[in-house]
Amino acid sequence: MKLSLFLSGLFICLITASCTNDAGPPVQDIAPAPAPREAKPVPKFDRDSAYAYVEKQVNFGPRVVNTESHRQTKEWLIKKLEEFGAEVRIQDFAAEAYDGTTLNATNIIGRYAPEREDRILLAAHWDTRPVADSPLEDDPNAVVNGADDGASGVGVLLEIARQLGMSDPGIGVDIVLLDAEDYGQANGGNRNSWGLGAQYFAKNVPAPKPRFGILLDMVGARDANFAVEGYSEKYAPEIVGKVWRLANSMGYGSYFVNERGGAITDDHFFLNTMAGIPTIDIINQRKDTDSGFVPHWHTGDDNMDVIDKRTLRAAGQVVLATVFREAAGTL
Q1: How many angstroms separate the CA atoms of 49 and 309, rounded?
Q2: What is the pLDDT of residue 9?
Q3: DSSP string covering 81-104, please?
Q4: Does residue 6 sit within a domain?
Q5: Total domain count for the chain?
Q6: Cα–Cα 20 to 30 A to 278, which of 129, 269, 300, 319?
Q7: Is 19 among the domain residues?
Q8: Distance (Å, whole) CA 227 – CA 256
Q9: Calpha distance 248→49 (Å, rounded)
Q10: Closest to 297 (Cα-Cα) out of 203, 264, 168, 289
Q11: What is the CATH number of the domain that holds 202?
Q12: Is 2 part of any domain?
C-alpha cells in the first residue's frame, strides 16, 4: 500500500515499504480548545450507517482496478453520492502501473455547494491492493478484501455525504473518492507508483480549489491510533492542530493521540506536493508491529471482523464537526 518514512527530528529519513512509527516527543499545542460558538448544530454521525457502507463495499469483493467488482462498486458509489444530493463529477483516466499494466481507473467527486469559493476537501481511496504482500502475511494467495484499507474511509465519507445532503454547513465541500492508490510497488519501489488517482486529481483539481483537505485511510479498526502523520505536520500543521484539538475537546483523545507517527506516502502527499492543497492524513499507525500499521494491513485478514463501529464514529464525528465549525469560523 503505502511507502513510509520514519520520522526522526524533521521526519526525513526514508525507509522502504513500511512505517516503523517510533514516535518522538509529543506534538506541541494539542490541548483542549475553548468551547466553540457554533452557528449551526453539528449533525450526529451515525456509526451504524457508516458500518453498513463499509460492509456493502466488502460484499462487492476486492475492488482491484480493471475487475468487475471494481466496476460494480464504482456504479454504486456514484449512485449513493447522487442520492445524497451531491453534484457528481467523474474523472476517468488510464495510468500505467509499475508492472506495465494499464489501469482504467476513476476518481469520483461529490461536490456540495459547488458555487462556493471557500471549500474543504475530504478524501479516501476506494480501490484495494491486488496482492497480499504485508511482511506479516503467511499466505501468498490470500485475498485482500480491504474492509479497513480503504472501505472504512469511504464508508465514513458516505455517511458524512448523507449528513451534508440534509444539513448545509455553510461552506463548500468536495468529497473525493480516489482510485488506484493501492497498486504501488512494494519493497523499495518508486513511491510515485502509489496514489495514481491522487496524482491525476492533483493535476486536474476542479475549480474553485479547496482551501485545505483531510484524507481518511484505515479508520475502522478497533482501538485505532491516529498519531500525527509526518507529511501532515510538515505541509498542514495548522490543520493538524485544529483537528487534534477539536478531537480532544470532543472526548476522542484516545484515538487522536498526542504523538508523532511516521511520514507516509499516501494520497495526501500528492495533494500537498502537486496540487498545493494543505492536506492531513488521519491514518491508524502502530508502534507494536513491524510494518508500522495494523496487523491486518495488506493481508487476507482485512475483512469485516476488524471493523469497529466506535472507531468509525470517532473519525466521522470529528471530521463532520471540523466541517461545520470551520464553516462557522469557530474551529
Answers
A1: 9
A2: 37
A3: HHHTT-EEEEEEEEEE-TTSPEEE
A4: no
A5: 1
A6: 129
A7: no
A8: 6
A9: 24
A10: 289
A11: 3.40.630.10
A12: no
pLDDT in tens, 231-266: 999 999 999 999 999 999 999 999 999 999 999 999
Q: How much of the chain exceeds pLDDT 70, in percent?
A: 87
Residue 129's alpha-carbon distances to 71, 134, 201, 294, 320, in angstroms, are 15, 10, 20, 15, 28
- What region, left, alpha or beta, does residue 161 occupy, with left being phi > 0 and alpha being psi -120 to 50 degrees? alpha
Q: What is the pLDDT of residue 35?
A: 46
Distance CA 319, CA 315 (A): 6
The grid coordinates of residue 83 equal: 442520492
Q: Are 89 and 81 in contact (CB under 8 A)?
A: no
Vertex 299 angle, CA 135 and 200, to 5°: 95
**Can you give the residue range of the structural domain that contains 56?**
24-328
Q: Residues 36-82: pLDDT tens digits?
A: 445 689 999 999 999 999 999 999 999 999 999 999 999 999 999 99
Q: Of the candidates 281, 293, 312, 307, which has an alpha carbon nearest to the alpha carbon of residue 21? A: 293
Q: Is residue 103 within 8 Å of residue 97, measured between CB atoms? A: yes
* 135 in any annotated domain: yes
Question: 117: which 3 cell numbers?
Answer: 469559493
CA distance 9 to 31: 22
Q: What are phi and psi of 88, to 5 degrees?
A: -100, 130
DSSP character at residue 306 = G
| Residue 314 CB partners (closer than 8 Å, separation 6+) | 224, 247, 252, 255, 256
Which segments of 215-266 does DSSP mark as H helices, in order? 230-235, 237-249
The residue ranges of the chain whose pLDDT is under 50 are 1, 3-37
Q: Is 165 exposed, middle or buried (0-12, 13-18, 19+ CB in 10 A)?
A: middle
